[in-house]
């Protein structure tokens, strides 16, 4: 919690975000361009930027919006996309990722942003920031374009842990509630539990147990439990937060992402097909750009690690400046609302014993 | 195996498909329109049509292409979408679905087509047709638009059973191989096993075991095992057949479907936005229709039940005439190639003992 000598520059009256400048596919220049974009739009953000000082200094110096809101922390090593998480944990103390998490650990910042290796970031975050009291499995919350007023749904777990039991799923519901409320202003989030259908013969036993646990906590935690939902509800408008284990969540997200990419490619091909269709694509340009922005993964790529002492925003490895800036905006929002503390309080107050679990129609529980 | 008196009309020199005319959301008129479409394109198909004779006769009489290739089997009851599978099994003997499966059971046809209640159809198919010798869990194989030359990938299981152990997944690989080869002419299918990533800390233990089992059978069964794949490979071109349990498969398919629908809706809205974009949509009409056809779920909606004595093609409940006709085309192809028998032979010859399972580099196995 000690203030570093160079901390004032980033921190004076600002909400400070810790940024890992290295390790993304696009390199540090893209990260610096991204934070410059954010600094231009929002003068209340300060940055602690972690990476090779000699590389970062000239990049920052070129951006006038960064002149008075960035502190650089030298870190000689970089976690590559190919590094094995277990190796990074043992040998990664000099990396920019480690350094970026250290700023959250020591209280200089409450939120960290990185475009680096997801597995390494998750493992390192869990090791260095540690789980919140009572949390067994941290989760990654991922945004997905949907029909909802806020334009997307939140899914968790997006792949932090391949397993989740009923209690974990219940905690995911609590974490998702806090996240939707503090990150995106959804006052009373609607929570859905992912399943394959509502017929009596379907569904795994841990899901039935999770159903009861989540129901029992809906009132106290002030969310709406809409019950079981299906894959099609991820882009739908029946709920705001979808709960599932990290294996299923990861497969669903990647299938959706791949399908969206395929359609975009086929659409481009369709418009190149004939002179008439090429003319049409010119006329439709602004409409298509609007559509692209709406479903662009870069706009919604802020996967967020929940359940730790501090919050970590994982941006796509291939994020460009727009993507980095979107991740920083989300990080700022979460830091400003004191999300981490609220989440911790929420989890601590949850009712866990399954014996007391009742349906949501039961009015007796608080 | 006895020839029915009215069987000749459908069967004379034709490949006979058994069709459940009732139970789809669109009613029997749509099913009859669909088979008429198929009959017009392919004079070598014969149909045994199951449902209320009084309703079906006038519908068939209106279609000239159906005049000499349809036999109607009266069945007074209909399985509705709301009926619970367990109820249908006990009380469904007079339904068109039961009757349609009966034609496969008694050898009049080798493939059955239905648009009805999936759960009931699956349960009834398993009960009446019974599993192939050695098969523990039948599976639903579903087609999904992809970058592959054939235009789609096959995923199984799409939701027949929420669980699958290593041996089931290996049998899915064998069934998927036979299906891709006989249904779509993919001579040496590339098989992928769905997982969340290739990093060492990821993946469930049954998937690692399945990996070894599938590897061990690749040579004998003459498929290419490409190893673990991810959700994004479902619409991709890294493999032709993707293997997973029915829970994960169902969630992935419905997420992809929902995402495609969302994009289509947003695209429509984008083109309505301004006079210029409306003009553009007129000019682009044929291009967009081409795209629509390419990714239209009606073109690829033939979910097929594999692993039974006989094959059942499940069409979307909401399938229109085009969808029904696509399902009939697939059924015809599977019937003509003697798919069921080949699948049975394939499964019987598989090497099962896990102790012998070796990596694909091992040249000792046949």
TrEMBL record, chains A, B:
Keyword annotations from UniProtKB, A to Z: Acyltransferase, Cytoplasm, Lipid biosynthesis, Lipid metabolism, Phospholipid biosynthesis, Phospholipid metabolism, Transferase
SUPFAM superfamilies to which the protein is assigned, alphabetical: Isocitrate/Isopropylmalate dehydrogenase-like (SSF53659)
Main location (coarse class): cytoplasm
Keyword Transmembrane helix among UniProt keywords: no
Top EC group: transferase
Chemical reaction(s) catalysed: a fatty acyl-[ACP] + phosphate = an acyl phosphate + holo-[ACP]
Pathway involvement of the protein, from the record: Lipid metabolism; phospholipid metabolism
Any one GO molecular function term: phosphate:acyl-[acyl carrier protein] acyltransferase activity
Pfam families in UniProt: FA_synthesis
NCBIfam families: plsX
PANTHER family: FATTY ACID/PHOSPHOLIPID SYNTHESIS PROTEIN PLSX, PHOSPHATE ACYLTRANSFERASE
Subunit structure of this chain's protein: Homodimer. Probably interacts with PlsY.
Protein name: Phosphate acyltransferase
Originating organism: Roseovarius pelagicus
Lineage: Bacteria, Pseudomonadati, Pseudomonadota, Alphaproteobacteria, Rhodobacterales
